[in-house]
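Troubleshooting log. The previous run stalled partway through. Resubmitting the same two chains, unchanged.
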Amino acid sequence: MILVLVETLGDEVVEVSREALTFARELGDDLGAIVIGGQAAPFAEQLGGYGVREVLEVTGDPFSAYAPAVWAAAVQTAVQQTGASAVLATGTPRGNEILAHVACRLGVAMAANVVAVDSRQPLQVSRQVLGGAAMEEMSLDTSPAVLSVAGHALEAQPAAEATACSVRALEVTVDERDLAARVVRTEVGESADSGTLKSAKVVIGAGRGAGGPDGFNDVLELTELLNGALGVSRVVTSLGWRPHREQVGQTGSKIAPDVYIPCGISGAIQHWAGCSSAKAILAINTDADAPMVTKAHYAVIGDMHEVVPAINAEIRRRKG
Amino acid sequence: MDVLVCIKRVPEIAGAVTLTDDSMAVDARHVGYTVSPHEECAVELAVQVAKATDGSVTVLSVGTDDAIQQLRDALAVGCSAAVLVEADADRYGPADVAAAVAEVVTAHESQGRSYGLVLLGNDAADTGDFQVGIRLAYALGRPVLTGAATLELEGDRVVTRAEGPEGTEVSEAPLPAVVTVVEGGVEPRYPSVPGRMKAKRVQVETVTPTSSPTGSGRMRLKLPPPPASEVEVLGKGADAAPAVVDLLERLGVLR
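Second attempt completed without errors. Output:
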């Protein structure tokens, strides 16, 4: 069995988990899933659509809050009960964290942010290194194979034929020591996290070209007109012009909007690592040779402080 | 409290990546070296904790003696001791690095130097394995928290703030603990001139790992194919605005 740790939000299996399920089918046909901390039944039909035959549900007090080691213990139990040959999760902070615990507990290697299976026997994979600026071909020959699937490296695709997915409650013996490191509370609030930025369909980017902390009014207006989110380059946050939660890149958020409009961003590879999954990129930059411009699908050559207000005016004019 | 902070010397890449002839590593001859922003923040947090608790910070790196440069940079901003675990980092997988660091922690402990906190970057800027800190914690039998933007000590516990899927997650673990750090919670300080002078005088402790590495599984590196399409220039300056708005309508993001 190929076992996938699935993350859910509301009544949906999150997109990156659906990508991981899609990826898992490249490793085998016998697909299982594990859902921790909540009911699995509401997701059984969605999971069946991706080819999952059985979903293991882990509930109970120790799993109501997030404690990485105890969640990993649940995955470990699932692997041992099913005899899974591979265990997968998303290449998100949470997915990578749980899998690293799982790999330690099972005494095997782990490949983070895998994008392709190069060989099934022996297992060889390609994975993102340098924040996605390069790939590493890696031999993953310990069993079970433990790997996280890089976000947005492939598109989530339901299976050609949906399968009936049964739900089974998994009993996990909890060791108190695994509860030592845990989340004690979550502070929800738009100002506290970058969730809006990561899920936005349109992201307006701004970099050094903004010129200073007061140089963001036009891009913020465009963000509002397009109902999007603002994303900035690292230089903007390290200069203190905007908060770190708005940073896009290797050490910020990875985004995959329908449209990304980077303004005054030259496009260092660390930034590209965070935005290259955008479906369309429209760069606005004074330098026609800037990497951001040459890698973009569309470009306007000019100063963002002239171009963006003109775009805003044109949108307002058409909206009437 | 005494803190150990682990850093890694990595190529400082901004533009194009070049690989060595055998494709096993990044060719960094024409770029510089640095440590990742995550680790600069880990050093900063380590120094803050040590200052607040009258403790000290030891900085450690696994690598060749070139990494002494990065150790001295950390000494210049407030670390007071440095350890180089001499090894060919390219032959070390994440489990090997964790084992080598654990060996130092255990050896220091037997000499009466115990670390209440071990800090690392959340993920290395080059290999991106996302697991050394967790493997180290298992090797030491200590709890581990990852992705911390900030941390505080509260009695015998460490409390971190990290970004979770539904907001900022406040986590805690009993000390001694391992914590991996991400950029964004603190501003790394700049070295002062006296700091630099002091850093030069510190004797770096050099140790050699006792066990041979199992390796990272790396077969080769490759570069992604260049973007397939040519860029379509919509125009210059403010005059391009109508073409931009046409495009936004065509892409369905303007209704």
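Takeaways: DSSP finds six helices and 13 strands in chain B. Chain B has one domain: 3-207.
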